[in-house]
Design brief:
seven-stranded mixed sheet, alpha/beta, 9 strands
Length: 260
């Protein structure tokens, strides 16, 4: 979290975090990170790093980031993820974080996951959120407040490779995710040596993370489906309102909307 390459990443994207409300350190938080993008760079710069302003903006808050369990099945990649301070997004791990003796823990997860990543494209904001309610259940059972977070510029960091038949390619990637828990991203970025067809470096765009206001959640060890659905609807509305309130500041046209 204190590695110098985190600062390099922030400088490369002219990155900054925008705070819209306080996160009192006497509460725990489940933070939804949107959109996933192809490489999830916004959450890496915010919750997986101490060097880009998060501790100063939210004093007393201890940040955690989690991702798919499948990311930890492969040697070297597993160690790299753990060195960067990232853990598995299992229910067991989330409960471990939120049940520490002290308060002020904020755990961020990219709700849309890899299914959202393969839908990522510049200028489009398709979120895999309609049927993602596990994080809502955890917030209810553990009494953790919900916080929406949106990364403006995330979907512009890479251009996806769609091929001749984008739908067929997406279906193939979905099947790979189902069986192996991970799929290598297929994208075009910036070339380190100036090759005209691009490379693996992300495109140099302005990346901004806007952290929304917390949604108060009272602990409910046995929430009903109706209670989960109600809180999910409140969260979705809060995320959309956050996007609408800030999109004009980052060059997003008025007619562009979040599609859930």
């Amino acid at each position: 979290k204190n590695a110098i390459f985190m600062t390099w990443g922030g400088d490369y994207f002219n990155y900054r975090i925008v705070k819209t409300a306080d996160l009192p350190p006497d509460r725990n938080y489940v933070v939804g990170s949107h959109p996933h993008g192809i490489m999830c760079l916004g959450m890496t710069q915010s919750f997986a790093s101490y060097l880009n302003g998060m501790p100063d903006l939210f004093p007393g808050i201890k940040t955690w980031s989690v991702t798919l369990i499948g990311q930890f099945l492969y040697p070297l990649r597993r160690e790299l993820m753990m060195i960067c301070g990232t853990g598995a997004s299992s229910k067991r791990n989330l409960k471990y974080i939120l049940n520490q003796e002290d308060k002020g823990h904020a755990v961020a997860l990219t709700v849309g996951g890899l299914n959202e990543a393969i839908m990522s494209a510049p200028g489009k904001y398709h979120l895999k959120l309609k049927d993602r309610k596990g994080f809502i259940t955890v917030a209810l059972t553990e009494g953790a407040d919900l916080v929406p977070m949106f990364h403006f510029g995330e979907n512009e960091t890479y251009k996806p490779v769609c091929g001749i038949c984008p739908k067929r390619l997406r279906n193939m990637q979905t099947r790979v995710i189902k069986y192996y828990g991970f799929v290598p991203p297929i994208m075009i970025g910036r070339s380190l040596v100036g090759l005209p067809w691009g490379g693996i470096m992300p495109l140099k765009v302005h990346l901004v993370t806007v952290v929304g206001a917390p949604i108060r959640v009272e602990k409910n060890p046995n929430p009903t489906k109706e209670e989960i659905d109600k809180l999910h609807a409140v969260y979705c509305k809060s995320l959309i309102d956050l996007f609408e309130a800030h999109k004009a500041n980052y060059g997003i046209r008025p007619e562009q909307k979040i599609i859930i």
